Amino acid sequence: MGYSIGQVAKKTGLTAHTLRYYQKEGLLPFLQKSSSGLRVFSDNDLGWLGLIECLKETGMPLKDIRQYIDWYLEGDSTLSLRLDMFKNQKNRVEEQIRQFQKHLEKIEYKIALYEEAVKEGSLDKAVANPRMQALKNGLSQTDNAK
Amino acid sequence: MGYSIGQVAKKTGLTAHTLRYYQKEGLLPFLQKSSSGLRVFSDNDLGWLGLIECLKETGMPLKDIRQYIDWYLEGDSTLSLRLDMFKNQKNRVEEQIRQFQKHLEKIEYKIALYEEAVKEGSLDKAVANPRMQALKNGLSQTDNAK
DNA sequence: ATTTAACTTGGAGCTAACTCTAATTTTTTG
DNA sequence: CAAAAAATTAGAGTTAGCTCCAAGTTAAAT
Questions:
Q1: How far is the CA of B84 from the C1' of D10 (A)?
Q2: What is the pTM assigned to this prediction?
Q3: I want to staple A18 with a disulfide (CB 3.0 to 4.6 A). Which of A14, B44, B76, B100 is the partner?
Q4: Which residue among B74, B109, B137 closes a domain?
């Protein structure tokens, strides 16, 4: 029912150093210690780590995650602040997915171009190829309009 | 035909500081200066900035972008290295999109939960609601299996 | 022509998120 | 029980990517 810091490190891919750092930053407010001073992680702590990972990987800074946790500890008076936070984060994630898909198109164009270039042995030849120019024109460019 | 650093800052959303920093880091190898020492950005430089943005926003560190540019400057002998780089980056972006979609599900569950909690005035009540528990069980959890 | 705005440089400073050190203690293993 | 592995702390150090400063130069606007 309890995990050592090393077991949690293995499970999460974080280092023990990072886990201690997260606790110091207030991200693991329920983490307990044994009588001899060793950290004992519960499944609930793992749940918090899962949420932290989700928010961190979608670009939320640790201090904002900390803010959320502080609101959580404050209780039901902060429910709507927390709801707003998740709604904002949802919008950010959706926007990022859209951006990533656009970036992916650009990278796929580069792959097509370089595959042609490797075949021809020359980037200039690949760029001059009408098929490549057609592909490039099909790209949804970042809006650089004057 | 040429843009000042300030114009490019406005266009790209980067600061003039950042643009100088990028040049110092070798990311703008073709950027010219006027006879009096002012930077003059061409459309080609803007193109490079567009690629830098694409790679940076998809998580590539500047030093790897620099590596790519160095390969570009080396000429056609590095074509396949560059192709591999773009292929790897494509895989990373696809993986990130998958992760984001999983994270999005989790955030959407939190939104549903907190909407219920705000309505009830209590997070505990929302958590106890069977509809919420069903939703939670439907989530594709990060694999925490022992 | 003057003022104001934009640009130049080298180098220092900053923030986020770790990452490591060293000395000590606890736990596990043979 | 002895040795090795894993844990503890406070605090220092690192890295990436900016961000700013000061003193001076150039360009634009009135």
A1: 45
A2: 0.94
A3: A14
A4: B74
